[in-house]
Amino acid sequence: LLLLYFPFYLAVFRYLESITPEHLNIISSPLDKFIPFVPVFIIPYLFWFVYIAVPGIYFLFCEKEVFCRLMYFGMIGMTVFLFVSWVYPNGLAIRPESFADDNIFTQLTRYVYSVDTSTNVLPSIHVFNSVGIYLAVKDSDILSRKKGICYASLIITVLIILSTMFVKQHSVVDVISGLLLSYVSYELIYGGRAVQIWNSFHMVKYRKNEGLKS
Prior knowledge:
Elements: H1 5-18, E1 25-26, H2 42-62, H3 64-87, E2 90-91, H4 104-115, H5 125-139, H6 147-166, H7 172-189, H8 193-213
Helix pairs in contact: 1-3, 2-3, 2-5, 2-6, 3-5, 3-7, 5-6, 5-7
């Protein structure tokens, strides 16, 4: 049932991408101009799709509890992303207008630019979901025992986060907001805060009911 969230997310995202807002808020940071465009980082940027899919399928069939927590984590962040994109239409103006070299990396970058608009970038889902996969690996009873896999997951996550800035797909603002959102989701799902909030809500409700009875 959790997988049904993906059609919902994709449908809403497609809708948000198709509309033209009256005012587009340009996301930028003074730090963006100091970050060079490095075409080779298009490789880890595109590898994100594999990095999300393969562990996700593994957890779905092999460790369902880990998969559920990963999904809850992702649903929080992606829903927040959709809401922000709806109430605060945003975009970037940091993509290079031309490339100094013409190689496989710039060609891939040009292709990504052509199929992915520079709108709806805040917070970075590339960053958020990459962190989510790393947390799921650490949450796994099986994978967390394998240091090589944990280190590889951490390195891939870092490279993907860096790639979003080096290929000018995201501003520093997008990345930082993605990391902050990851922290909030982590506290709710893995830190037990969601359970605490839920239990507190029921405790308050129980006390109100007891007060009415008395």
